[in-house]
Amino acid sequence: AQAVPGAPLPADAGDGAVPSPLLRQDEQLELLERLDFVVRNIVELRKEVEELRNGLQQLAVEIVGEVRTHLEETQRVTRRRRFPFSRERSDSTGSSSIYFTASSGNANTDDGESEGGYTTANAESDYDRESERESEDEVSCDTVRTVRRDSLDLVPEDESLLVLDSTLEEGLGQLLEQADRLHSGDERDKREGFQLLLNNKLAYAGQREFLWRLARARCDVWELTEDADERRSYATEGKEELELALQKWDQSAECHQWFAILCGQVSEHESIPKRIQAGYVFKEHIDKAIALKPQDPQLYYLLGRWCYQVAHLGWLEKRTVSALFEAPPTATVQDALQNFLRVEELSPGFSKAGRVYIAKCYRDLGNASAAGLWMNLASELPGSTKEDAESEKELEEMRSV
After folding, report:
1. What is the pLDDT of residue 3?
2. What keyword terms does UniProt attach to this protein (predicted)?
């Protein structure tokens, strides 16, 4: 009241007279509300500016780090070319670039680099890594060496390779059957399956069916591990192995599928810009896998999850996407719903998590009756994975609401 200017007093007013306010009481309240609204907007604007500033600083750090990494990898490629050892590399003219680049230049023909100038995961010291792993896998390969030695002793030299190849092929079939069985088991079985494949890597590292199963086993132990460094190691090694495999087997749906999953697992330990970039890579390889294997429900489930996450990007993530990419990823809840329904069409009751996602999509679209129906259908399925257990928690939260 003291801040409101008063009307001038008449000349004959006494000392006890009080000036009357120029604004009525309702006008004063309206003015105060407007001032309060302005103050709130200023505070919110200040927060947004601070978030944007932090995001730009982080982006600058990431750019500097990527440039430094690129220079270091280029130097390592140069050093690797000086080794007096001839290395065999599988050429692939059909595989597209795995990394997204800022320019659309021609593919670099240097051994250590992929399209757009990014170095591949094979760039640094494959020779050193393989030398170390040979000593680690020495014990597990006694059987292979015994077969090789016996074959060389009992048959002529020109027939030894044929005997060895047939023996390895028979052993590979049994190994893959055992790996598939262990993958479908409990936590202990999955760890045993990973160790089994890892022990036989030296013998079958050049086999496509073996490599994508090894990548799948790395994904299994990644989910079972709590330590962040171990998880990063499993995902990174699997991604590097499949990156090389895709150069040779670009028409393998399984290689594309598990490479996409590993890219997503690696990105969970990265910054927002790298997670968004990994999202592009994930979508690219899932689309390729679907084109090669259109009747696989797992692929549509993965694509549905991607669509749902893109449809629910936060404010900062959307700003980062707009700043980094000319064509930001677009997807709606309706897109996610169609993919999850496609899963049920191909394999009814495929997963508990899939039905929970369908219920969430209907909830977001405002269809409460359909959401309730799919919540009940999800409750009918048992939870067999860690993801199913998390979905059960979401189901309980949805019921409470």
Report:
1. 46
2. Coiled coil, Cytoplasm, Cytoskeleton, Membrane, Mitochondrion, Mitochondrion outer membrane, Nucleus, Transmembrane, Transmembrane helix
